[in-house]
DNA sequence: TTGAAAGCGCTAACAA
DNA sequence: TTGTTAGCGCTTTCAA
């Protein structure tokens, strides 16, 4: 058998050894260049890069991970619901993760129960991630997993303990409060609340903000309604609420529920915003184009994702230093056409909060 | 230094060797059990599983990948837009991938140009995937990457060559055709089309379906309008179209554009559906709760994702056998309140296609 | 500034 | 049915 000199036999995929050979350096030098390590001469760097390019060399991440312990990946466990909010958050997370130089692994856990979350985390850890994000989990019991990487809880408090825990909220409490106050400012005596499903953390958060606003003004707290985020559930709530003439203002925990709510109200002969005002929650821009255009509160998905990933990456890369300060996103109330003064104060025409 | 017997020193993470030792078998047997390979006695299997459980053993995927060549991951390159359609598709992809026993890696390429797609694919390949999905790419020039794993093109034709290529459509052509025919069936002389951005494949597909329907009925083809999928762009198109009294039916390539369109039309004093009928595209359920409820065509996201992943996994796991037959999802027209006979035929009250 | 050797934790091929 | 041996392709010592 003839010796094959100069390169691996066949046309197999190039390895770092092939690059080293072509560049006339050692494999370690190739590794140094590819990892941007110091102590490499400019000349060596140039040669290595040229050789890698010529060969079409592609680094083998699995090998790197095995040798170094770092995976270059960040995972996200989400609920897998299809809504403007969750979709928007995921897109911004992907973007921030990519910008930080990491790859993204996604696992959904539709039920969001502790066992589901634990399983999702387990699979992420097995696949290999340097850290991960738990996005808007459902709170209900303890999640027990052994976690030895930093974890970012986005939009919710820690659901389990980990090496290093970062929490970034989306300001739901303040947003809910602002939405409620907007209605109160318009002159409504009190504000009803159509909340999300009981098990969700996001639901509790908004309820608390709503309560706080009511309490601060000494307004009485009407009974709560729960939907499931869908327009259909908002519609059902609207049918229940419509006959009650004392209802003049409703804060829905999601834009889609608000849309369903308005639809039911109008079908029942109640005008929006003349008889009843409705404000949503999320900020999906499409609802500026329905009748009436929906007044809502905008969730700072992009800011929260960026900020959260920044902190997570810091925790991964500089485990010994303190976490930088998390900055809060500003509260953004979007006043459109679904809110107005109550029928009893027909002339309080222009009170709005920004 | 005293010899440490029976287990690795310290409380470090357990390895397969630790499991083997505790179970009293060889590492290879542990490997067999964990991979569900044949030729393992029930007794050995039980012991290994118990040992793994006791130790809290977590398989190291990087090591497995390096040794076996299989990654257990599937990648998806998407556009990273926030819409009901893309979000819905991604959720169903994640679900199907997980059900097939794979992990999911996500890379977005917001621009969708060949260089962006190539970069996204490159990063996926480097991270390690056994196959990947290119979802609704933008067509415009050639993507040049060396791809040696199967690729699934979802909702679009192959944009580059790979070892094994699978294409699964969402039936956009038929759906667009059905939407247009529904309008024609109602008695409209012709149907205008508000298309998506020119560069998108999805745009072309829908245009062709619309054209086909028009041609089949001998209807004349009005000039095309292009939006960017947003409600705002639909609104702009609506303002442009409203003054033209000959327009009585419009097919919008997306639900959100349809919503914006309707808003502009009404603002301009044209009634929907009495004066102008509008049909959307996607099937977002929330638009059943706006006024008028939107007639639309439902994209079979779940079916397409399931079917596509099934074929992709087949191509990955059984590279030598033929691909099973791809089955088409049924066309689903959702007739709601935004379509009606044209003003000139006030009594053709009930013609609908299913 | 560079290189040689020794693994990272697993599976493949083979032998028993 | 089981175990042994030899890597997978990279990074990490450590020495030069």
From TrEMBL, chains A, B:
Q: Where is this region: Disordered?
A: 334-354
Pfam families of this UniProt entry? LacI, Peripla_BP_3
So which domain of life are we looking at? Bacteria
| Keywords from the UniProt entry | DNA-binding, Transcription, Transcription regulation
Indicate the segments forming the HTH lacI-type domain, all copies: 14-68
Q: What PROSITE patterns does the database record attribute to this sequence? A: HTH_LACI_2
* Any one Gene Ontology molecular-function term assigned to this protein's record: DNA binding
- Entries under InterPro entries matching the protein: HTH_LacI, LacI/GalR-like_sensor, Lambda_DNA-bd_dom_sf, Peripla_BP_I
Q: What is this protein called?
A: LacI family DNA-binding transcriptional regulator
């Amino acid at each position: 058998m003839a010796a094959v000199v100069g390169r691996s036999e066949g046309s197999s995929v190039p390895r770092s050894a092939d690059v080293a050979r072509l560049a006339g350096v050692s494999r370690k030098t190739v590794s140094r260049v590819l990892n941007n390590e110091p102590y490499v001469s400019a000349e060596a760097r140039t040669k290595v890069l040229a050789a890698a390019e010529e060969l079409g060399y592609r680094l083998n991440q699995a090998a790197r991970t095995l040798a170094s312990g770092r995976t270059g990946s960040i995972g996200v466990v989400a609920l897998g619901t299809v809504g403007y909010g969750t979709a928007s958050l995921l897109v911004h997370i992907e973007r921030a993760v990519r910008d930080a130089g990491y790859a993204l692994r996604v696992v959904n856990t539709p039920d969001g129960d502790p066992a589901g979350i634990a399983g999702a985390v387990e699979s992420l850890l097995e696949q290999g991630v340097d850290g991960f994000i738990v996005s808007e989990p459902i709170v209900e019991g303890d999640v027990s997993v052994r976690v030895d990487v930093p974890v970012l809880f986005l939009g919710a408090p820690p659901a389990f303990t980990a090496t290093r825990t970062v929490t970034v909220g989306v300001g739901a409490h303040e947003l809910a409060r602002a939405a409620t106050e907007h209605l109160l400012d318009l002159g409504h005596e009190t504000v009803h609340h159509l909340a999300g499903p009981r098990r969700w953390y996001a639901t509790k958060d908004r309820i608390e903000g709503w309560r706080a606003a009511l309490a601060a003004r000494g307004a009485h707290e009407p009974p709560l309604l729960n939907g499931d985020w869908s327009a259909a559930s908002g519609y059902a709530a609207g049918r229940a609420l419509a006959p009650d003439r004392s209802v003049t203002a409703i804060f829905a925990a999601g834009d889609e529920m608000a849309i369903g709510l308005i639809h039911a109200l109008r079908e029942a002969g109640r005008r929006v915003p003349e008889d009843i005002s409705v404000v949503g929650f999320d900020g999906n821009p499409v609802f500026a184009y329905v009748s009436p255009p929906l007044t809502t509160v905008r969730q700072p998905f992009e800011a929260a994702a960026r900020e959260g990933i920044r902190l997570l990456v810091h925790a991964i890369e500089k485990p010994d230093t303190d976490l930088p300060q998390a900055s809060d996103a500003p509260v953004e109330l979007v006043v459109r056409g679904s809110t107005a003064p109550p029928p009893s104060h027909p002339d309080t025409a222009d009170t709005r909060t920004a």
